[in-house]
Design a protein that fits this description.
The structure is a single chain. With 517 residues, the chain is mainly alpha-helical. 59% of the residues lie in helices and 4% in strands. Strand 1 and strand 2 form a beta hairpin.
Length: 517
């Protein structure tokens, strides 16, 4: 008996016949799933809105994005090196907030070019950031059919400190992430419908169109939003390749639903929904901006963006630049705000720092992830990559044997096939999001890894759920310990996420690496 056949029989054993990745009806009368998601959203939103106007100034790149939005409201173009969709969103937040009178007198300033409240150009980011964990959880649910994984994913994402920081200021990364994840959510919904109906129904088409709009809108925030679409292309090509092998009687590693339905989308359908619709969405996003100055053009703006990024300096252009290979270990976070004050005095927002003295308070907003979550997620995606590589190696052996005229099938039981599909989704998207920066020579920052890191959070949820359902108590306790470390780490480093006052000793206690300064 060949080694591959023995492996196939081994993995069809009773241990691997669980319904780990199969939908299951809940026996509880309580709507625990809905209550859990509502609780996660409520806490996430509260953390983002609490003290939102604390720093009555422009924090980090708010000096660009808040000003761009204020200029747009005054009918002016302010070029910032990126497409203008985030400018419309922040401008809309300012417009609505000022009409509803949000924010007290102490939150107003004219630093953006308009005399408005800091809350007006931050609140929409806060709401967007609170929604992202729910969308990532919904993607986990569609991938696995398990509500427990969806809740765990949403919980872990809600504990991501970098996402919390980015959600509290008028920056644009949260919009890029939200649109990209919504694109994937709609695409997975269309694949579920396609798997059930086995044909392109109107609902399937609707979700495909919405997916294309989501992916196009992500590119409309920043060009690197195209990585979400690239991840979809990668998995579509793999699914088609495996289907072709099956048609020729050769071994394959088939995807489980819903990813298996990717091979049912032919080139024409794919080109329309995943190329035509995203490009149209991106093109339309420029029209309001171009109308401010009809002498400009769509093509002209693309050339300006390309020229801008070609002229950005290298890794020595900014003290917080960091190369792509350091991101999985979070070696160089970014300081967004740093001020000192004497206890009892108001938070300083302009001018030089107060003299350092005993008892001084330090306000430090550090754009960094929750270290325990970040490092555990990096470990999890490495484990998933190893699992995918393991099965690819055995598939390669089976394929080689079949081409040599030997019968060498590689069978996967449903639970293993489902886990492999979910792992391939995580690893494929993470790799595209991360490795696209390998050849970039301009100054890059840790926040360029945020999209990739959220896929590793999903990967961590997959690994922890597998351990929690393991028959061995050691694995279950290991998973519970990892979740506890994430929650405790989120609380411990929260002063750096929210900019809460710290003593010098308290700040130093949270700087675990010298490069975190």
């Amino acid at each position: 008996m060949s080694r591959s056949v023995r492996l196939s029989k081994r993995f069809q054993s009773k241990r691997f016949q669980s319904k780990r990745f199969q939908p299951a009806a809940s026996s509880s009368s309580l709507p625990w799933y809905g209550l859990g998601l509502a609780g996660i959203f409520g806490v996430s939103l509260a953390l983002r809105l609490w003290g939102l106007g604390r720093f009555n100034t422009l924090v980090f790149d708010e000096v660009y994005y808040a000003k761009f939005a204020a200029a747009f409201l005054q009918g002016q173009q302010e070029f910032g090196g990126h497409p203008p969709l985030s400018t419309y969103l922040i401008a809309g937040g300012i417009w609505l907030s000022e009409r509803l009178g949000w924010g007290g007198p102490e939150t107003y300033n004219g630093l953006s070019g308009l005399y408005v409240s800091t809350i007006s150009y931050r609140w929409l980011n806060a709401v967007t950031g609170a929604v992202i964990p729910l969308v990532l959880g919904a993607i986990a649910h569609l991938l696995t059919g398990r509500k427990a994984i969806a809740l765990l994913t949403a919980l872990l994402a809600a504990c991501e400190g970098f996402l919390l920081v980015e959600s509290r200021y008028a920056l644009n990364n949260v919009y890029l992430i939200l649109f990209g994840l919504l694109g994937w959510w709609c695409l997975l919904r269309s694949l579920h419908r396609l798997h059930s109906a086995n044909k392109l129904t109107p609902v399937v088409w609707l979700n495909l169109v919405l997916a294309g709009i989501g992916f196009g809108a992500s590119v409309g925030i920043k060009w690197n939003g195209v990585a979400f679409l690239a991840g979809a292309y990668l998995l579509w090509i793999v699914a088609w390749g495996m289907q072709r092998l099956q048609q020729h009687g050769l071994p394959s590693l088939p995807f489980a639903p819903p990813l298996s339905s990717l091979s049912h989308l032919n080139a024409g359908v794919w080109a329309l929904s995943m190329a035509g619709i995203p490009f149209l969405t991106y093109y339309l996003s420029w029209l309001p901006y171009i109308q401010l100055d009809p002498s400009t053009s769509f093509a002209g703006w693309q050339n300006r963006i390309l020229d801008y990024h070609s002229r950005v300096g290298g890794m020595d252009a900014h003290p917080y630049c960091s190369p792509w290979y350091t991101w999985p270990l979070m070696l160089r976070p970014v300081a967004y705000f740093y001020k000192t004050a004497v206890p009892g005095d108001p938070v300083p927002v302009v001018g030089p720092d107060a003299p350092t003295a005993a008892g001084d308070l330090i306000y430090d907003v550090h754009a960094m992830g929750t270290p325990t979550l970040w490092w555990l997620s990096t470990l999890a995606v490495a484990l998933l990559a190893g699992a995918v590589g393991y099965w690819l190696w055995h598939w390669g052996r089976s394929l080689w044997a079949a081409r040599s005229g030997q019968t060498e099938p590689l069978l996967l039981p449903p639970a293993t096939q489902g886990y492999l599909s979910a792992a391939a989704f995580v690893v494929g998207n993470w790799a595209v999001q991360w490795l696209m920066w390998m050849r970039v020579t301009r100054c890059t920052f840790l926040y360029h890894y945020m999209s990739a890191e959220l896929f590793t959070v999903l990967g961590l949820a997959l690994v922890l759920d597998r351990w929690l359902r393991n028959a061995q108590s050691g694995s279950r306790w290991l998973a519970r310990g990892a979740i506890a470390l994430v929650l405790l780490g989120f609380i411990f480093w929260m002063p750096l996420f929210l900019g809460l006052p710290l003593s010098a000793d308290g700040l130093q206690m949270r700087r675990w690496l010298p490069s975190w300064i």
